[in-house]
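User: Last request for today: this protein with cytidine-5'-triphosphate, please.
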Amino acid sequence: MQIYKVGGAVRDRLLGKPVTDIDWVVVGATAEEMLAKGFRPVGSDFPVFLHPKSGEEYALARTERKSGRGYGGFTFHASPEVTLEEDLIRRDLTINAMAEDDHGVLTDPYHGQQDLENRLLRHVSPAFAEDPLRVLRIARFAARYAGLGFQVAPDTLELMRQLSESGELEDLTPERSWKEISRALMEDHPQVFIQVLRDCGALKVLLPEVDALFGVPQPAAHHPEIDSGVHTLSVLEQAALHKQPLSVRWACLLHDLGKGLTPQSEWPQHIAHEHKGLKLIKQVNERFKAPRDCQELALLVGQYHTHGHRALELKPSTLAELLQSFDVYRRPQRFEEFITACEMDARGRLGLEERAYPQADYLRGAAIAVRTVAVQPLLEQGFKGPELGEALKRERLKALKVYKEQHSQ
Ligand code: CTP
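Assistant: Here's the final one, the structure of the complex with cytidine-5'-triphosphate:
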Protein backbone atom coordinates (compact mmCIF):
# COMPACT_ATOMS: atom_id res chain seq x y z
CA MET A 1 0.00 0.00 0.00
CA GLN A 2 1.11 3.59 -0.58
CA ILE A 3 0.20 6.38 1.79
CA TYR A 4 0.00 10.05 0.79
CA LYS A 5 -0.68 13.27 2.61
CA VAL A 6 -3.60 15.02 0.85
CA GLY A 7 -5.91 18.00 0.91
CA GLY A 8 -5.53 20.95 3.24
CA ALA A 9 -2.20 19.85 4.71
CA VAL A 10 -0.50 19.93 1.29
CA ARG A 11 -2.25 23.14 0.27
CA ASP A 12 -1.40 25.02 3.45
CA ARG A 13 2.23 23.90 3.46
CA LEU A 14 2.62 25.23 -0.10
CA LEU A 15 0.95 28.47 0.98
CA GLY A 16 3.33 28.72 3.93
CA LYS A 17 0.43 28.53 6.38
CA PRO A 18 0.43 26.48 9.57
CA VAL A 19 -0.88 22.94 9.10
CA THR A 20 -3.21 21.74 11.83
CA ASP A 21 -4.94 18.53 10.67
CA ILE A 22 -3.37 16.08 8.32
CA ASP A 23 -5.52 13.88 6.07
CA TRP A 24 -4.06 10.80 4.41
CA VAL A 25 -5.11 8.72 1.46
CA VAL A 26 -4.19 5.06 1.19
CA VAL A 27 -3.79 3.50 -2.26
CA GLY A 28 -3.69 -0.23 -2.92
CA ALA A 29 -5.14 -1.44 0.38
CA THR A 30 -8.30 -3.13 1.56
CA ALA A 31 -10.33 -2.38 4.66
CA GLU A 32 -9.23 -5.73 6.10
CA GLU A 33 -5.56 -4.80 5.75
CA MET A 34 -6.19 -1.50 7.53
CA LEU A 35 -7.97 -3.25 10.40
CA ALA A 36 -5.15 -5.78 10.64
CA LYS A 37 -2.71 -2.87 11.11
CA GLY A 38 -4.73 -1.61 14.05
CA PHE A 39 -6.56 1.28 12.31
CA ARG A 40 -9.99 1.99 13.74
CA PRO A 41 -12.90 2.35 11.28
CA VAL A 42 -14.98 5.55 11.25
CA GLY A 43 -18.60 4.48 10.83
CA SER A 44 -19.62 1.20 9.28
CA ASP A 45 -19.56 1.64 5.51
CA PHE A 46 -17.34 4.70 5.17
CA PRO A 47 -13.82 3.78 3.95
CA VAL A 48 -12.11 6.03 6.48
CA PHE A 49 -9.93 4.89 9.39
CA LEU A 50 -8.23 6.51 12.34
CA HIS A 51 -4.55 5.91 12.97
CA PRO A 52 -4.13 3.87 16.17
CA LYS A 53 -1.65 6.41 17.65
CA SER A 54 -1.99 9.82 15.96
CA GLY A 55 -5.79 9.61 15.52
CA GLU A 56 -5.37 11.19 12.05
CA GLU A 57 -7.75 10.24 9.23
CA TYR A 58 -6.68 7.70 6.65
CA ALA A 59 -9.13 7.24 3.76
CA LEU A 60 -8.92 4.44 1.25
CA ALA A 61 -8.60 5.82 -2.28
CA ARG A 62 -12.14 5.87 -3.59
CA THR A 63 -14.42 6.99 -6.31
CA GLU A 64 -17.80 8.29 -5.37
CA ARG A 65 -20.94 8.03 -7.36
CA LYS A 66 -24.13 9.73 -6.63
CA SER A 67 -27.16 7.57 -6.02
CA GLY A 68 -29.68 10.16 -4.95
CA ARG A 69 -30.22 13.58 -3.44
CA GLY A 70 -28.77 14.71 -0.14
CA TYR A 71 -25.80 13.60 1.89
CA GLY A 72 -27.21 10.11 2.30
CA GLY A 73 -27.30 9.80 -1.46
CA PHE A 74 -23.75 8.54 -1.90
CA THR A 75 -22.33 5.19 -2.74
CA PHE A 76 -18.64 4.73 -2.11
CA HIS A 77 -16.47 2.62 -4.23
CA ALA A 78 -13.18 1.93 -2.47
CA SER A 79 -10.91 -0.80 -3.75
CA PRO A 80 -7.17 -1.46 -4.04
CA GLU A 81 -7.46 -0.78 -7.80
CA VAL A 82 -8.54 2.86 -7.39
CA THR A 83 -5.55 5.03 -8.34
CA LEU A 84 -4.38 8.21 -6.66
CA GLU A 85 -5.43 10.26 -9.71
CA GLU A 86 -8.92 8.72 -9.63
CA ASP A 87 -9.22 9.63 -5.97
CA LEU A 88 -7.98 13.20 -6.48
CA ILE A 89 -10.28 13.95 -9.42
CA ARG A 90 -13.40 13.67 -7.27
CA ARG A 91 -12.18 16.28 -4.79
CA ASP A 92 -13.56 19.80 -4.62
CA LEU A 93 -10.79 22.22 -5.63
CA THR A 94 -7.56 21.78 -7.58
CA ILE A 95 -5.66 23.33 -4.65
CA ASN A 96 -7.15 20.59 -2.43
CA ALA A 97 -6.40 17.81 -4.93
CA MET A 98 -2.66 17.48 -4.49
CA ALA A 99 -0.89 14.62 -2.71
CA GLU A 100 2.55 14.27 -1.21
CA ASP A 101 4.43 11.05 -0.47
CA ASP A 102 6.72 10.48 2.50
CA HIS A 103 9.70 11.86 0.54
CA GLY A 104 7.83 15.12 -0.05
CA VAL A 105 7.26 14.32 -3.76
CA LEU A 106 4.14 16.08 -5.01
CA THR A 107 1.45 14.51 -7.21
CA ASP A 108 -0.50 17.33 -8.81
CA PRO A 109 -2.39 16.02 -11.85
CA TYR A 110 -4.98 18.82 -11.87
CA HIS A 111 -2.58 21.79 -11.63
CA GLY A 112 -3.29 22.82 -8.07
CA GLN A 113 0.10 24.49 -7.73
CA GLN A 114 -0.58 26.66 -10.75
CA ASP A 115 -3.95 27.68 -9.29
CA LEU A 116 -2.25 28.46 -5.97
CA GLU A 117 0.07 30.79 -7.84
CA ASN A 118 -2.79 32.31 -9.83
CA ARG A 119 -4.85 32.64 -6.64
CA LEU A 120 -7.74 30.69 -8.13
CA LEU A 121 -10.32 28.53 -6.39
CA ARG A 122 -11.15 26.18 -9.24
CA HIS A 123 -13.12 22.93 -9.21
CA VAL A 124 -11.31 19.80 -10.34
CA SER A 125 -13.98 18.14 -12.48
CA PRO A 126 -17.76 17.86 -12.94
CA ALA A 127 -17.69 15.52 -9.90
CA PHE A 128 -17.71 18.78 -7.93
CA ALA A 129 -21.50 18.70 -8.19
CA GLU A 130 -21.72 15.47 -6.20
CA ASP A 131 -21.73 17.34 -2.90
CA PRO A 132 -23.77 20.56 -2.63
CA LEU A 133 -22.00 21.42 0.63
CA ARG A 134 -19.09 22.41 -1.59
CA VAL A 135 -20.92 25.62 -2.49
CA LEU A 136 -20.49 26.68 1.14
CA ARG A 137 -16.97 25.28 1.36
CA ILE A 138 -15.75 27.26 -1.64
CA ALA A 139 -17.33 30.46 -0.27
CA ARG A 140 -15.57 29.69 3.03
CA PHE A 141 -12.19 29.23 1.33
CA ALA A 142 -12.79 32.52 -0.52
CA ALA A 143 -13.34 34.17 2.89
CA ARG A 144 -10.20 32.59 4.30
CA TYR A 145 -7.84 33.39 1.45
CA ALA A 146 -9.27 36.73 0.27
CA GLY A 147 -6.35 38.48 1.96
CA LEU A 148 -3.97 36.56 -0.31
CA GLY A 149 -5.95 37.66 -3.37
CA PHE A 150 -7.78 34.39 -4.09
CA GLN A 151 -10.93 34.46 -6.19
CA VAL A 152 -13.44 31.87 -7.31
CA ALA A 153 -12.81 30.86 -10.95
CA PRO A 154 -15.72 31.97 -13.18
CA ASP A 155 -16.56 28.43 -14.36
CA THR A 156 -16.57 27.21 -10.73
CA LEU A 157 -18.91 30.03 -9.77
CA GLU A 158 -21.15 28.94 -12.64
CA LEU A 159 -21.23 25.37 -11.29
CA MET A 160 -22.03 26.75 -7.84
CA ARG A 161 -24.88 28.71 -9.40
CA GLN A 162 -26.27 25.60 -11.07
CA LEU A 163 -26.08 23.68 -7.79
CA SER A 164 -27.84 26.52 -5.97
CA GLU A 165 -30.59 26.61 -8.58
CA SER A 166 -31.01 22.82 -8.56
CA GLY A 167 -32.64 22.91 -5.12
CA GLU A 168 -30.02 20.58 -3.67
CA LEU A 169 -28.82 23.08 -1.06
CA GLU A 170 -32.16 22.56 0.65
CA ASP A 171 -31.22 18.95 1.34
CA LEU A 172 -28.18 19.87 3.45
CA THR A 173 -28.64 19.08 7.12
CA PRO A 174 -28.64 22.05 9.52
CA GLU A 175 -25.55 20.59 11.23
CA ARG A 176 -23.44 20.40 8.06
CA SER A 177 -24.49 23.89 6.95
CA TRP A 178 -23.89 25.41 10.37
CA LYS A 179 -20.43 23.89 10.55
CA GLU A 180 -19.48 25.65 7.32
CA ILE A 181 -21.25 28.91 8.19
CA SER A 182 -19.72 29.14 11.65
CA ARG A 183 -16.23 28.36 10.34
CA ALA A 184 -16.65 30.88 7.53
CA LEU A 185 -17.79 33.59 9.93
CA MET A 186 -14.61 33.06 11.95
CA GLU A 187 -12.35 33.57 8.93
CA ASP A 188 -10.49 36.85 8.37
CA HIS A 189 -12.93 38.08 5.69
CA PRO A 190 -16.35 36.63 6.57
CA GLN A 191 -18.08 39.27 4.42
CA VAL A 192 -16.51 37.57 1.39
CA PHE A 193 -18.30 34.33 2.35
CA ILE A 194 -21.68 36.10 2.19
CA GLN A 195 -20.71 37.96 -0.99
CA VAL A 196 -19.68 34.76 -2.80
CA LEU A 197 -22.88 33.00 -1.71
CA ARG A 198 -24.79 35.95 -3.10
CA ASP A 199 -22.80 35.94 -6.35
CA CYS A 200 -23.77 32.32 -7.06
CA GLY A 201 -27.39 32.60 -5.96
CA ALA A 202 -26.91 30.44 -2.83
CA LEU A 203 -27.64 33.26 -0.40
CA LYS A 204 -31.27 33.50 -1.45
CA VAL A 205 -31.64 29.77 -0.79
CA LEU A 206 -29.72 29.55 2.50
CA LEU A 207 -30.30 32.99 4.00
CA PRO A 208 -33.07 34.69 1.99
CA GLU A 209 -33.55 37.10 4.91
CA VAL A 210 -30.00 38.42 4.42
CA ASP A 211 -30.29 38.37 0.63
CA ALA A 212 -33.41 40.55 0.90
CA LEU A 213 -31.35 43.36 2.45
CA PHE A 214 -29.52 44.07 -0.79
CA GLY A 215 -31.16 46.87 -2.74
CA VAL A 216 -32.92 48.22 0.34
CA PRO A 217 -31.88 51.85 1.01
CA GLN A 218 -31.30 53.48 4.41
CA PRO A 219 -31.06 57.21 5.18
CA ALA A 220 -27.76 58.63 3.89
CA ALA A 221 -27.27 60.77 7.00
CA HIS A 222 -26.61 57.72 9.18
CA HIS A 223 -25.67 55.32 6.42
CA PRO A 224 -23.47 56.89 3.74
CA GLU A 225 -23.24 53.44 2.11
CA ILE A 226 -27.08 53.57 1.69
CA ASP A 227 -27.64 49.87 0.92
CA SER A 228 -28.68 47.67 3.88
CA GLY A 229 -26.93 44.60 2.46
CA VAL A 230 -23.68 46.49 1.92
CA HIS A 231 -23.98 47.79 5.47
CA THR A 232 -24.42 44.25 6.83
CA LEU A 233 -21.28 43.10 5.03
CA SER A 234 -19.34 46.06 6.47
CA VAL A 235 -20.54 45.30 9.99
CA LEU A 236 -19.34 41.73 9.59
CA GLU A 237 -16.03 43.01 8.23
CA GLN A 238 -15.61 45.23 11.29
CA ALA A 239 -16.41 42.31 13.61
CA ALA A 240 -13.62 40.29 11.98
CA LEU A 241 -11.16 43.20 12.04
CA HIS A 242 -11.85 43.52 15.77
CA LYS A 243 -11.42 39.76 16.28
CA GLN A 244 -14.89 39.26 17.70
CA PRO A 245 -16.18 35.82 18.76
CA LEU A 246 -18.69 33.81 16.73
CA SER A 247 -21.74 34.95 18.71
CA VAL A 248 -20.96 38.62 17.94
CA ARG A 249 -20.35 37.87 14.25
CA TRP A 250 -23.61 35.95 14.01
CA ALA A 251 -25.48 38.80 15.70
CA CYS A 252 -23.84 41.31 13.32
CA LEU A 253 -25.00 39.32 10.30
CA LEU A 254 -28.61 39.20 11.50
CA HIS A 255 -29.03 42.52 13.34
CA ASP A 256 -30.92 44.40 10.61
CA LEU A 257 -33.07 41.64 9.06
CA GLY A 258 -36.20 43.67 9.80
CA LYS A 259 -35.13 46.22 7.16
CA GLY A 260 -35.88 43.64 4.50
CA LEU A 261 -39.55 43.73 5.54
CA THR A 262 -40.07 47.51 5.26
CA PRO A 263 -42.63 48.38 2.55
CA GLN A 264 -40.99 50.32 -0.29
CA SER A 265 -43.33 53.24 0.36
CA GLU A 266 -41.55 53.79 3.71
CA TRP A 267 -37.97 53.65 2.36
CA PRO A 268 -35.41 54.83 3.35
CA GLN A 269 -36.90 54.88 6.87
CA HIS A 270 -37.23 51.60 8.76
CA ILE A 271 -39.53 52.28 11.64
CA ALA A 272 -39.56 49.50 14.24
CA HIS A 273 -37.27 47.31 12.13
CA GLU A 274 -35.68 46.07 15.38
CA HIS A 275 -38.92 44.49 16.52
CA LYS A 276 -40.07 43.34 13.05
CA GLY A 277 -36.78 41.53 12.50
CA LEU A 278 -37.12 39.29 15.55
CA LYS A 279 -39.27 36.64 13.89
CA LEU A 280 -36.78 36.46 11.00
CA ILE A 281 -33.82 36.14 13.36
CA LYS A 282 -35.63 33.36 15.20
CA GLN A 283 -36.38 31.61 11.93
CA VAL A 284 -32.74 31.74 10.79
CA ASN A 285 -31.49 30.62 14.22
CA GLU A 286 -33.77 27.61 14.06
CA ARG A 287 -33.00 26.78 10.42
CA PHE A 288 -29.35 26.15 11.29
CA LYS A 289 -29.85 25.05 14.90
CA ALA A 290 -27.33 27.71 15.89
CA PRO A 291 -25.84 27.26 19.38
CA ARG A 292 -27.74 28.87 22.20
CA ASP A 293 -25.30 31.74 22.86
CA CYS A 294 -25.42 32.73 19.17
CA GLN A 295 -29.22 32.53 19.07
CA GLU A 296 -29.70 34.61 22.22
CA LEU A 297 -27.21 37.30 21.32
CA ALA A 298 -28.59 37.67 17.78
CA LEU A 299 -32.10 38.20 19.17
CA LEU A 300 -30.96 40.67 21.82
CA VAL A 301 -28.79 42.66 19.40
CA GLY A 302 -31.64 42.66 16.87
CA GLN A 303 -34.06 44.01 19.44
CA TYR A 304 -31.84 46.52 21.25
CA HIS A 305 -29.12 47.79 18.92
CA THR A 306 -30.80 51.17 18.51
CA HIS A 307 -30.93 51.47 22.30
CA GLY A 308 -27.18 50.88 22.24
CA HIS A 309 -26.64 53.75 19.79
CA ARG A 310 -28.91 56.05 21.81
CA ALA A 311 -27.41 55.00 25.15
CA LEU A 312 -26.44 58.52 26.21
CA GLU A 313 -29.97 59.82 25.66
CA LEU A 314 -31.81 56.97 27.36
CA LYS A 315 -33.79 57.74 30.51
CA PRO A 316 -32.47 55.95 33.62
CA SER A 317 -35.62 53.79 33.66
CA THR A 318 -35.07 52.67 30.05
CA LEU A 319 -31.42 51.99 30.79
CA ALA A 320 -32.51 49.92 33.81
CA GLU A 321 -34.88 47.88 31.63
CA LEU A 322 -32.14 47.33 29.06
CA LEU A 323 -29.74 46.04 31.71
CA GLN A 324 -32.49 43.87 33.13
CA SER A 325 -33.29 42.38 29.69
CA PHE A 326 -29.67 41.32 29.41
CA ASP A 327 -29.68 39.86 32.91
CA VAL A 328 -26.48 41.82 33.29
CA TYR A 329 -26.16 40.78 36.94
CA ARG A 330 -25.64 37.14 36.08
CA ARG A 331 -24.50 37.44 32.44
CA PRO A 332 -22.03 40.38 32.26
CA GLN A 333 -20.18 38.82 29.32
CA ARG A 334 -23.31 38.75 27.16
CA PHE A 335 -23.86 42.46 27.75
CA GLU A 336 -20.25 43.13 26.77
CA GLU A 337 -20.85 41.21 23.54
CA PHE A 338 -23.97 43.30 22.90
CA ILE A 339 -21.95 46.49 23.36
CA THR A 340 -19.30 45.39 20.88
CA ALA A 341 -21.92 44.26 18.34
CA CYS A 342 -23.46 47.76 18.57
CA GLU A 343 -20.04 49.29 18.09
CA MET A 344 -19.42 47.15 15.00
CA ASP A 345 -22.82 48.26 13.68
CA ALA A 346 -21.85 51.90 14.19
CA ARG A 347 -18.49 51.43 12.45
CA GLY A 348 -19.77 49.28 9.60
CA ARG A 349 -20.74 52.37 7.64
CA LEU A 350 -18.95 53.98 4.72
CA GLY A 351 -16.33 56.45 5.94
CA LEU A 352 -17.28 55.98 9.62
CA GLU A 353 -15.09 52.96 10.34
CA GLU A 354 -12.82 54.87 12.72
CA ARG A 355 -15.50 56.87 14.51
CA ALA A 356 -15.51 57.12 18.29
CA TYR A 357 -18.25 55.17 20.06
CA PRO A 358 -18.62 56.72 23.52
CA GLN A 359 -21.82 54.72 24.00
CA ALA A 360 -19.69 51.64 24.70
CA ASP A 361 -17.98 52.97 27.82
CA TYR A 362 -21.17 54.66 28.92
CA LEU A 363 -23.03 51.34 28.83
CA ARG A 364 -20.16 49.57 30.58
CA GLY A 365 -20.25 52.22 33.31
CA ALA A 366 -24.02 51.82 33.68
CA ALA A 367 -23.61 48.05 34.10
CA ILE A 368 -21.01 48.64 36.81
CA ALA A 369 -23.27 51.19 38.52
CA VAL A 370 -26.16 48.74 38.89
CA ARG A 371 -23.93 45.84 39.80
CA THR A 372 -22.40 47.73 42.69
CA VAL A 373 -25.80 48.04 44.40
CA ALA A 374 -25.38 45.69 47.35
CA VAL A 375 -28.09 43.28 48.50
CA GLN A 376 -26.83 42.92 52.06
CA PRO A 377 -28.07 46.30 53.42
CA LEU A 378 -31.53 45.56 51.99
CA LEU A 379 -31.58 42.16 53.68
CA GLU A 380 -30.56 43.84 56.92
CA GLN A 381 -33.48 46.22 56.53
CA GLY A 382 -35.74 43.14 56.49
CA PHE A 383 -36.63 42.95 52.77
CA LYS A 384 -37.27 39.48 51.41
CA GLY A 385 -39.02 37.69 48.51
CA PRO A 386 -40.70 39.89 45.89
CA GLU A 387 -40.25 42.97 48.10
CA LEU A 388 -36.52 42.46 48.05
CA GLY A 389 -36.68 42.35 44.24
CA GLU A 390 -38.62 45.63 44.16
CA ALA A 391 -36.24 47.31 46.61
CA LEU A 392 -33.27 46.20 44.52
CA LYS A 393 -34.89 47.64 41.40
CA ARG A 394 -35.43 50.98 43.16
CA GLU A 395 -31.83 51.11 44.35
CA ARG A 396 -30.52 50.25 40.92
CA LEU A 397 -32.65 52.96 39.34
CA LYS A 398 -31.31 55.44 41.88
CA ALA A 399 -27.77 54.38 41.03
CA LEU A 400 -28.46 54.92 37.33
CA LYS A 401 -29.90 58.39 37.97
CA VAL A 402 -26.74 59.35 39.84
CA TYR A 403 -24.61 57.78 37.10
CA LYS A 404 -26.41 59.71 34.35
CA GLU A 405 -26.18 62.99 36.25
CA GLN A 406 -22.47 62.55 36.92
CA HIS A 407 -21.95 61.71 33.29
CA SER A 408 -23.74 64.77 31.95
CA GLN A 409 -21.74 67.19 34.13
N1 CTP B 1 -13.03 17.25 0.34
C1 CTP B 1 -13.81 17.38 -0.80
N2 CTP B 1 -15.13 17.71 -0.71
C2 CTP B 1 -15.71 17.91 0.49
C3 CTP B 1 -14.95 17.79 1.68
C4 CTP B 1 -13.61 17.46 1.56
O1 CTP B 1 -13.30 17.21 -1.91
N3 CTP B 1 -16.99 18.20 0.57
C5 CTP B 1 -11.63 16.85 0.19
C6 CTP B 1 -10.67 17.97 -0.19
O2 CTP B 1 -9.65 17.39 -0.95
C7 CTP B 1 -10.14 18.43 1.14
C8 CTP B 1 -10.02 17.12 1.90
O3 CTP B 1 -11.14 16.35 1.43
O4 CTP B 1 -8.91 19.09 1.01
C9 CTP B 1 -10.05 17.25 3.41
O5 CTP B 1 -11.24 17.87 3.81
P1 CTP B 1 -11.35 18.82 5.07
O6 CTP B 1 -10.48 18.29 6.17
O7 CTP B 1 -12.78 19.06 5.34
O8 CTP B 1 -10.79 20.19 4.54
P2 CTP B 1 -9.37 20.80 4.32
O9 CTP B 1 -9.16 21.00 2.84
O10 CTP B 1 -8.33 20.07 5.08
O11 CTP B 1 -9.57 22.28 4.83
P3 CTP B 1 -9.62 22.93 6.25
O12 CTP B 1 -8.32 23.66 6.32
O13 CTP B 1 -10.77 23.85 6.13
O14 CTP B 1 -9.81 21.86 7.26
